[in-house]
Amino acid sequence: MSALVRAELVKLRSTRSQPWLLLATLAMVVLTIAFTTPSAGAQNNPLSLDQPSPLAEIVGVSFGFPRVTMVILGVLSVTQEVRYGTVTSTFLVEPRRTRVLAAKGVGVVLASVVIATATLVVSVVVSAGMIHARHGNVTPRSEFWQMVAAAFAVMALSGVIGVAIGVVVRNQIVGVIAVLVWMNAVDHVLLDALPAVGRWTPGGATYGLLQLGPAITTKQALLDVPVSGFLLAAYTAAIVLVAAAVAPRRDVL
To answer: Is the pTM value of this prediction over 0.85?
Structure first.
């Protein structure tokens, strides 16, 4: 199993698009912070510099795009092999496809630690600088550390979900477009138009786990942190079980 995980890490590291994907992700983190951080005395803004610890909310919001990146990275880890035909040699080396699926999941979880750490460093530095420049409080409180722990969990689960989606969908273009549409449009539409439904979606569970209620929607409170965490884990387990059932039955040629 360790050899399979090492092989998956080599595949992730050697893909030429990955460094550019990381750079684009960090650039979007900076842009997100720039648009999210309120001005001093700003009115009608869901976030306020007058609250005890705006750092937690702003850094939490900045994980929106990295979360999408992790799902896409998981999708690509499977669909690129299907697209270029290397999945055949992968299954010849290890015919038990669920083991390959598990190795890909472990690989993206390890990659999520790197991406989450890079995101956190950039986000904290930029957010703290902007909050301090606008005379806000940058002191980390308990909410900040809870958000950090939740962010690492969200990134890891997002990568695993992406791998499972890749196994189920297989088509790279369809998989990536479906992820982008759902995470960037459907999630937000449901939270705005039907918050009672939207908070039970994977996106709603993620926002609840990161404690981003006021920053995401003002129409209805998101689920509590424990319920959100359980719900997101349940979604992950469900799609992984579907992928594990589908993978042995799929042709690879």
So the answer is: yes
